[in-house]
Prior knowledge:
The protein is mostly helical. It contains 7 helices and no strands. α2 packs across α6 (146-167) and α3 (77-87) crosses α6. The model has no long low-confidence stretch (mean pLDDT 83).
Amino acid sequence: MEKKEMDRYRCLKETCGRLGKLFGEIAEALQGVASMEQATAPLAKVTEEDMLRNCISMLMQERDARGRYLVSSKCQWQAIYRILADHGLGVADGDYAGFERLAWRIQPAGCRVPFSLSALKQITKTGFTRPFSRWTFDPAYSKTRRPYDEMVAIATRFSEILEYHLEAGEPQACLTTPVPASPWG
């Protein structure tokens, strides 16, 4: 190779190297722009039902101090009904048919303890028909205090989860904001 050809080859090699580096920088910048667009893109509108579904999902994962799930039986959906009725969220006090329709819509997919209408209907045989603030243990409804205490723990924790997300002011926060730890676990 002659000197001219060597110089031309070296020049082309350097130019290709600079172009490759420049293309790499452009590609990186474009990836950064794309991720910024994704991060700033408006999130899909979250409905009240989405928020309730997520709050129930969180409740279903709560455990007590012994590591047992707080919600362990279908009749404990009565506590969810009671808190929603007390807050006026999707169901009126005493509207069990309305809660049934709502429960089928807000029940999380693959719910560990699925909603049951027959279990909800048992509420009329308990003291849980009253607003949560007026619940008291009554031996006429239960021979032992444990079921009452479990229902109170569920209603208390669900109310905390719900209020925490309602205070955030945006239903979207329910999907991204962690709830403070439960005092039971």
